[in-house]
Fold these 3 entries.
Entry 1:
Amino acid sequence: MLIWIILFSVLGSVGAILAASIFILIGEKVQKKLVTSLLSFATGTLLTAALMGLIPEAIEYAGEPHLVSIVILGGLLFFFFLEKFLIWRNCQVDDCEIHTHATGPLVLIGDAFHNFTDGIVIAAAFLANFGVGLAAGITIIMHEIPQETGDFAILLHDGMSKKKALLYNLLSSTATIPAAIISYFVLDIFETTIPIFLAISAASFLYIALSDLTPQLHEKTETKEIIKQIILVVTGILVMILVLSIGPHSH
C-alpha cells in the first residue's frame, strides 16, 4: 500500500511539473501570449478549486463551517499582510514607482500547503480503500496539471526566469511526497489537520485570484482581449468542475 501511495504522490507532483515545463520549449513571443492567456485560465481554476473543491471538502472533514470560515478569514489576512511585507521589502531595496508584484511567493506558499494536503488525502484514501485511493490519486493528478500550468504562468509573469520558476514550482510540488509518507505512519494525527490545510489553501487561491490576477486582467481593455479573458476564465472553471466531479470523495 505504501508503494501505491508513493507512486501517486510522485505522479501528482512531478507529473504535473513535467506538463508545466513545456513552457521551457516554447519561444519567447508565443510564451508571452500564452502567459497572458493562462492568467485568465488560472483565475478560473483557482476560484473553482477553492469554492467548489477545497472549501466544501474542508467543511465536510471538519463538520464545522464556522471553524473553516475562521481559518479562511485568517488565511486571507495572513496573505494580505505577507504581500504587504513583500512589497515593502522590495521597495526598500529598489526605487519602485510601481510596486513589484508579490504574487509569485504567494502562489508558491499556497501551492505548498495544497500539495501537502494532497499527500495526506492520497494516504488517507488508500488506507481507507484501494479503489477510493486510485480514484483520489487520479483526481489529484488531473487537477494538478492545469493548476501547476497556471502557477507556472503566474511565476513567469512575476518576472522569474523559466529555470527558476520550474525549480521553485518543483520544490513546492514535492511537498506531496513527504506528506503522503508521513501520513501513512501517523494518519490519526494528520487527519485532524486536513480541514485547516484545505482552508488555508482555499484562502491563498481566493486571495491570489481576486487580489492579484483579476486587477492584472482589468489592465486589458480591448474588446477582443475582454472576450478572450471571459472565455478562458470560464474554460478554467469548466475544467476544474470536470476534474472535481471525477471519482468519489477521498474520505
Note: Residues 2-244 form one domain.
Entry 2:
Amino acid sequence: MTNYDSGNHSVSRSFTLLVSAMLWALLASANAQDYPAVSSAMKKLIPTASDIAIADTPINGLLEVTVGGDIFYVNESGEYLLQGKLFDLDKREDLTERARGKIRKQVLSQVNGDSQIVFAGDRIEHDVTVFTDIDCGYCRKLHSEIEEYNKLGIAIHYMMFPRAGIPSDSYDKAVSVWCAEDQHAALTSAKQGATPKPRQCDNPVREQYETGRDMGMSGTPAIVTKSGYLIPGYMPPADLKARLDQLAAAE
C-alpha cells in the first residue's frame, strides 16, 4: 500500500511555457514536423496542446509523444495510441518513468533554492525535493522524522503543494508558514497540527503548486530525487536512504 495522500479535488492540466520549452530541448531527437500525421492526431485529441514533443522508442514504428507532463505512445501514421508504461524487460527499466524523470529534473533545476524551506544536517549524501501539504497526514509523519532523515544524510527541500488548490485553508497556511520570521519553526508547528499565525508577504507558494501540478503531481508527499525520479508517498528514513543509495548506484 502506498503511503500517499491524494486530493479530492480535480486539477486542471495546464502547462507552463517553461515546461513546454524544456520538453523541446529534452526530446529533440524528433519533432512534430517530422511526423505530421502524429502531430495532427494529437492536436485533434488535445486541442489545447500548444507544443507536442515526439521522440523515437526502441520499438520500430512506435513513437513517444509528450504533452506537458503526459506521455503517450503513437504509431507513425497517427492511427493508434497507447497510454501507459513502456518497460525494457531485458534491462528491467521503466522507460516511461525515465522520460518523465528528465522533465522533472530539468524543471527542478530551474527552481531557486532560496524559494525552498530546507532541512539538512551536517552531512549530506542525498538531496531530495518533497512536495508537501500542511494538512496531509503522511506529510506530517514524514516531517515528524525529519531529524532522522538528516542524520542519515538526506537533505529535504520542501516545496508547497496544497492539494485543495488555490484558494484553500491549506494554501493560506502554507503562505503563513513561508511568511513567518522562523520558517522552520513555523512549518514544524503547523505539521504538528497548530494553525500558523496568518501572514502575508511575497511568496512562492502559488508558483510551487503550479510547478507540481504541471509535473503531474496529484498527491503528497511526493519525493523527487536530483535525477528526477519520483518516489510517491511516505517512506521511512532507513528505507528512503536505501532506495536513494540504490538509485545513485544505478546512475
Note: Residues 115-250 form a domain with the Glutaredoxin fold (CATH 3.40.30.10).
Entry 3:
Amino acid sequence: MEKNTKNVFRIILFIAGIAGILDTLVVSTFVNGMDLGVVLPLVIGVACIVWSLKPLYEKHLQKINPALRRITYWAFMLFLFFFIVVEGCIILGGIYIQNADVEPDYILVLGTGINADGSPSLTLEKRLLRGIEYANKYPDAYIVVSGGQGKTEPMPEAKAMAIYLVDRGISPGRIMVEDKSTSTMENFKYTKELIDPSGKIVFITNDFHVFRSTILARRNGLDAYGSGTSTPGIVLVNCYLREFFALVKSVILDHP
C-alpha cells in the first residue's frame, strides 16, 4: 500500500514537472523577453522530474552524510513554510488590503511590460482599463502613468501607456508621464517628484502586486490606496512565483 502511494506521488511529481516546463515554453511566446517569472516554472518543473526519478539514484544518496541530508531536508521544509506564508500575504493582500473608494487627486497606473510593437502586454492592459474606469469616475483627478524602458522594449512603458489612454478618449492634459522608473520602488519615488505628495492617490496594478506596492507606497510617504485588477490566466502562476522573490527583495532592500 505504501509503495503504491509513493508511486502515485512520483507520477504526480512527474506530471507537475512536465506542466512547469510547458508553462515556461507557452508563456515565453506571450511575453517580450524572458524574466524570472517566466523561467521559474521551468526550474521547478525540472526539480519535480528529478525528484520523481529518485529511485534511479537513491542508492547514491545513501552515501551522503546523514547529518548533511537532515540539514538539507529541514532547510527545504523551512523554505517551503516561508514560501507559503509569503504567498499567503501576497494573495490575501490583493483581496483585503484594497481601500480605493477614496476620491483621489491622482490615479497612478503602475507600468509593466509592453510588446515589441509598443502595445501593452495583457497584464498592463488590465491595469490601463481599470485606470480608464477611475478616470471616468473621477474626472478631476490627474492620471499618472509610471514606467521606464526595459532592454527589450521599444519605448518607455509610460509613453506607451499614455498613447493607449489618449487613443481611448483620455485628455492628454490629464496625463502625467513618469518614464524613468525601473522598479516598483522607483515608480513611487519618481511619481512623488511629479505630484503634490500630500494628495490622495489610487494606484492601479494587478492583484498579485497590491501587497508589495502598498508597502513601498507607504515607505515613500504617500497617501496611496491600491486597486488590484485580475491577472491574465496565461501568466498567473508566473506572476505569483516571481512576486515571492520580489517581495522578499523589496522588504530587505527597497528603502527611500
Note: The chain has two domains: 2-96, 106-253.
